[in-house]
Amino acid sequence: MLNKLRWRRRLRTHGYLKRSKTADGRKVLANRRRVGRKRLTVQHKKKKRSL
Question: Which of 7, 22, 23, 38 has its Cβ near the most Cβ atoms within 10 Å?
């Protein structure tokens, strides 16, 4: 449970929406796009379910 809350806090601090709200954050995203990063910001990885 605590780990889930930490990820939520991490996403709210360093996530895509937070970056795109500020001018400096948009510069960060633009620079990372220009470099060709696979991931622009942190993302919570979902576990793959095996059926």
Answer: 7
Question: Tokens 């780990």, residue?
Answer: 3
Q: Which of 14-46 are b and which e, b meaning 16 or more Cβ less than 10 Å from the residue's Cβ?
A: ebeeebeeeeebeeeeeeeeeeeeeebbeeeee
| CA 47 – CA 24 distance, rounded (Å) | 32
The per-residue pLDDT for 51 is: 67
Distances from the Cα of 20 to the Cα of 2, 34, 49, 51, angstroms:
27, 16, 31, 37
